[in-house]
Amino acid sequence: MKLTTQSQRAVMAMLALALHNDRKVLRLSNLAKEQGISLSYMEQLFYSLRHAGLVEGIRGPGGGYRLGRPAGRISIADIVRAIETHGEEDRDAAACSNQANIDAMLVGLDERVAEFLDGISLESLTYKHKKQETAYRPGTTASLIARMFPARGGFMPQPAGA
Asked: Which GO terms describe its cellular component (predicted)?
């Protein structure tokens, strides 16, 4: 499992999506600007992520991208695999025996790294940083409005006997 700059950028973009409100979408142009990379580079990353089912695109005005499944079901390894397997090249079959041994060790290392990254979900990385949405209950609406518009001194009814 390769951890390249592309993989890192894809993980950062997916974290931004996970931190974003789940009901809304993010435009790639905004995401690219936030990360300081070109829009075409971001489009390449999202092409691979979309084909892996990790994100879904929403068309039309106000369109953009959102997570393809819940953040708790997307591991960092899923993201890396989506990016790195898309452009994978075949290795030279005429490698010497030492190179074959080294390759076997690297495959074992890759498997360990993949197992580790499989245990890390987007949700586990973002749960402390998500903004809590304010939920208004019907019973508190009147008190909320009353606090927004406090009564003025001259208009308060005077208690009896004052």
From this structure: cytosol
